[in-house]
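Lab meeting, item 3. Inverse folding demo.
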């Protein structure tokens, strides 16, 4: 596996592991963030919150095993795309509990910076695919 691909995977492992741990440690605050998006109600709040945390942990496990680069890149891209779409629905709004992005719980307006972080992460997953496909052809 290429050094750049390995480095990107290590960065993603740290980011998503931190995010999942933050959500577990700050469980009530995290549920407030999820609720503030207005996409799910109280009835599905616990399930939705658990699915996100388990998905992030699952992605970390897939990223650790280098043989699963296709699955981890696809799954990571899907997660980031869903998170970005959700952020776009709240673009310009001030969320009292923050956006929940990688442990962000500070009051701020959802803006370009939040979207850009996700686009950069999505590009990282695309880069992993490009590097690994190129390596497979040699």
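The presenter then showed the designed sequence:
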């Amino acid at each position: 596996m290429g050094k750049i691909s390995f480095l990107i995977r290590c960065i993603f492992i740290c980011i998503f592991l931190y995010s999942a741990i933050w959500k577990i440690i700050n469980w009530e605050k995290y549920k407030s963030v999820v609720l503030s998006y207005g996409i799910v109600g109280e009835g599905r709040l616990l399930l939705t919150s658990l699915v996100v945390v388990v998905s992030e942990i699952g992605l970390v496990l897939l990223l650790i095993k280098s043989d699963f680069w296709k699955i981890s890149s696809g799954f990571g891209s899907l997660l980031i795309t869903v998170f970005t779409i959700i952020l776009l629905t709240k673009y310009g709004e001030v969320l009292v509990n923050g956006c929940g992005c990688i442990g962000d719980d500070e009051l701020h307006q959802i803006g370009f910076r939040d979207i850009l972080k996700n686009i950069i992460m999505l590009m990282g997953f695309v880069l992993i695919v490009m590097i690994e496909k190129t390596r497979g052809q040699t």
